[in-house]
Amino acid sequence: MSEDDSSSTxxxxxxxxxxxxxxxxxxxxxxxVQRLDSILTETIPIHxxxxxxxxxxxPRQIVKVVRSRxxxxxxxxxxxxxxxxxxxxxxxxxxxxxFKDLDLIFCADMKGESDFQTVKDIVLDCLLDFxxxxxxxxxxxxxxxxxxxxxxxxxxxxxxxxWSLISLSNNRGKNVELKFVDSLRRQFEFSxxxxxxxxxxxxxxxxxxxxxxxxxFHPTIVGESVYGDFGEAxxxxxxxxxxxxxxxxxxxxxxxxxxxxxxxxxRAASESEMKSxxxxxxxxxxxxxxxxxxxxRKLESYLxxxxxxxxxxxxxxxxxxxxxxxxxTVCLMGHERRQxxxxxxxxxxxVLAEQNVIPNVANVTCYYQPAPxxxxxxxxxxxxxxxxxxxACQQPAYSTWLPCN
Length: 405
What we know:
The chain is of the alpha+beta class.
């Protein structure tokens, strides 16, 4: 980045903060509007599995089609928002977070199971519109479309949370995630990922304006921080500070996001806050994922979804996670803690093997096991290099669990 670019970014950030001090909203400036427009009009490929063709779609197109059909089915959409790391990127281009997934939130009135099913059917039916003309669409069922183009589906319905998620696949990790929210108690994990940008005014501009946008002619677009104070959250993003509210409410996956922030150079404001936050993160992770099999599935899924094109950073991430779990886990029995650390270490060694990297022997413990035909249990003709950090073999699973007090 040139010196001129750097000074421009600083001015932009300062301007937004001064406009929103003490409030949770801000009006986007022209540079931010341009970045938002670029993201919404960029053509994103949705890759099909097997022989299914790739769908080419702009985010604004899929939003328009889905929203109009929801209204046709009498499901009122209050507004549409861009969420997550993409929103953070728009507000501060050099945030250090990067962004892959495109998180689009439809704030809608969905009161019953039938509404969730209707939304699912609408999204799958909309995919037909983006298929090439040469495809015979009459023979393609919703189930076929789901198997071909959907990365994951999630639905949560309880007293405090009513929402669903449909993630459309992209082989480069840039999934288009459509989230339909009636109510959601916790909408963020950390202040730096708490931003939501309301898209309605820009979407209306696309529909109604005959002239292109310009610095003197563009819609008013509002950003919001669901963390609370917009200026404070933006300051955290600018200075790479990890901060949150009520960390005990963050789900178990927050530990994985926290370690990802650490690897990207983010730090807690103070050491005492960091230690307290890490204990909360670890405790909730083991509450939500008490079984070693669940932990492995969660970790493998996180690595697959968040490190596309960043495979060289997986090892650093796993070693950071290993250190946090080792230092801050206080609610497990010793053997459970060891088997989780062993799992993380095993995944780290696997990452090195996949990358065909020969690690520095000062950073890995090598195990020379006896040959399989040696039946004597006392046979000990192997050598263990006791060097930190220790990569222990994965321990057998245990069913015992100590709840946190």
